[in-house]
Design a protein that fits this description.
Layout (H helix, E strand, L loop, with lengths): L2 E3 L22 E5 L1 E11 L7 H12 L5 E9 L2 H6 L20 H16 L3 E6 L8 E4 L4 H8 L4 E4 L7 H5 L5 E5 L6 H16 L14 E10 L6 E3 L6 E3 L16 E5 L8 E4 L6 H4 E4 L2 E4 L4 E3 L5 H6 L3 E6 L4
Parallel strand pairs: 1-2, 3-4, 3-5, 5-8, 6-7, 7-9, 10-11
Antiparallel strand pairs: 2-4, 6-8, 9-13, 9-17, 11-12, 12-15, 14-15, 16-17
Helix pairs in contact: 1-6
The structure holds zinc ion.
Length: 332
C-alpha cells in the first residue's frame, strides 16, 4: 500500500489536496536530503479533510525548491483517497491516526512499514499536523513529558496537551524514536493556520539539537484531559435560541482552553432530566455532577473547569463527543 520515493515530484509544489491522487498512487513516504543528515519527519493528511498541514508543507517545499534544505526531510502523506473528497476517512477505512500499533488491516501493515523505514533512517523530531472541528487556539499535544518533547511543543504554542490514550496514534508511537508532537492548527482553511505551521516546520528544520534542560514553567501551560463530555443519544440539542431538549449557548467553542469560573452558563435545559449530559472521567466513572449543575433550567459549571475541543458540529458531537474537560498539569 505504501509508496516510498527519494525525490520530490514537481507537481507536488502546485497540486491541491483534492488532486493529490493524480500525482501520488496512495499513501506516500518521501525522503529528501538536506544539510543535516537525520531527517525531520512530517506527517500530513492522516485525516483527509485536515488540509492545513499539506499546504504548510507545500509552502516549505516551494521555499526550498531552489536551495538546499537545512536538514533532511521525510514526509508522510496519508489518506490521499479521502482527501480527494474532503472526507476525514471513508466508512470502510480505519482512522489513519489509529493504525500505528500492530493490527491486521492493510493500513496497519502500511503504518508498520513507515515505522520500519523511519527507524532505519533515524528521526530528529516528528511532527503530525492536524485541524480541529471547533474553534480552538492552536495547541500542541505530547504523549511524553520529557524536556525535549516539551521544548518541541513550546516552539509551536504555549498551550500543550499531554495525553496517553489512544495509544495507537502516530505521535505516541514516534515518541519512541525522537521528540514527537501533534500540532492542532485551528479549523481547516485558515491562512494563519498554514503560515503558523509552516513557520514551525521551518524553525525545526533549522534546529541543530534540543535543549536538555526543563522548559521554564512560565513558557508553557500543560493540560491533561480529566473527562469527556457527551450529549445523551436520546436528547435533542441545538445552539442559541432553539426548541430542542438542550440549547447550548452560541459560540460554545469559543470557551475552549479558557479557565471558566464556577457558575459559567453553558446552555438551557428545556426538559426535566437528570441525565442532561454524560460526563465520564478517565477511569470510566460518571462525573457529571462534579463538573456541572442545573440552576433554574440552566446548565452551569459546578466548579472551575477548562473546556477543550468543544465542537458545534452536530455530526461530530453525535459520532464522537461534545468536547473534553482539562486540568492544568504541573509538568516539572
Ligand atoms: Zn486530525
Amino acid at each position: 500500500m505504501l509508496n516510498i520515493i527519494n525525490h520530490l515530484p514537481p507537481e507536488l509544489l502546485e497540486v491541491g489536496p483534492q488532486d493529490l491522487y493524480k500525482v501520488l498512487n496512495g499513501p506516500t513516504l518521501i525522503h529528501l536530503k538536506g544539510r543535516r543528515e537525520t531527517p525531520l519527519f512530517i506527517s500530513v493528511l492522516l485525516h483527509g479533510n485536515e488540509i492545513t498541514g499539506f499546504y504548510a508543507l507545500q509552502s516549505i517545499l516551494q521555499k526550498y525548491a531552489k536551495q538546499q534544505l537545512p536538514r533532511s526531510l521525510s514526509i508522510f502523506i496519508g489518506n490521499i483517497s479521502a482527501a480527494r473528497f474532503g472526507y476525514r476517512r471513508f466508512e470502510n477505512q480505519p482512522d489513519y491516526n489509529r493504525i500505528w500499533k500492530a493490527g491486521n488491516t492493510p493500513e496497519h501493515a502500511m503504518a508498520q512499514q513507515v515505522l520500519t523505514e523511519m527507524r532505519q533512517h533515524g528521526v530528529f523530531a516528528s511532527i503530525d499536523i492536524h485541524n480541529n472541528t471547533g474553534f480552538n487556539p492552536h495547541y500542541a499535544c505530547v504523549t511524553s513529558l520529557d524536556h525535549k518533547s516539551l521544548h518541541l511543543a513550546s516552539y509551536f504554542s504555549r498551550i500543550v496537551v499531554y495525553f496517553r490514550r489512544p495509544d495507537s496514534v502516530l505521535s505516541r508511537v514516534f515518541a519512541s524514536l525522537s521528540p514527537s508532537v501533534t500540532v492542532e492548527c485551528g479549523q481547516p482553511g485558515s491562512e494563519y493556520g498554514i503560515s503558523h505551521a509552516a513557520e514551525f516546520i521551518d524553525a525545526c528544520l533549522h534546529l541543530s539539537e534540543f535543549p536538555n534542560n526543563p522548559v521554564p514553567k512560565e513558557d508553557i501551560n500543560v493540560y491533561h484531559t480529566v473527562a469527556t463530555v457527551r450529549v445523551p443519544a436520546n436528547l435533542s440539542f441545538g445552539f442559541k435560541d432553539c426548541k430542542r431538549d438542550i440549547c447550548f449557548i452560541d459560540m460554545l467553542d469559543h470557551l475552549n482552553f479558557q479557565e471558566l469560573p464556577t457558575n459559567t452558563l453553558l446552555g438551557k435545559l428545556n426538559i426535566q432530566s437528570k441525565q442532561y449530559l454524560d460526563v465520564v472521567d478517565e477511569a470510566g466513572n460518571n462525573v457529571t455532577n462534579k463538573y456541572f449543575k442545573i440552576d433554574k433550567a440552566e446548565i452551569r459549571t459546578a466548579c472551575p473547569v477548562i473546556p477543550a475541543m468543544f465542537s458545534m458540529d452536530e455530526i461530530v458531537i453525535r459520532q464522537d463527543c461534545l468536547g473534553y474537560l482539562m486540568e492544568a498539569l504541573d509538568h516539572c
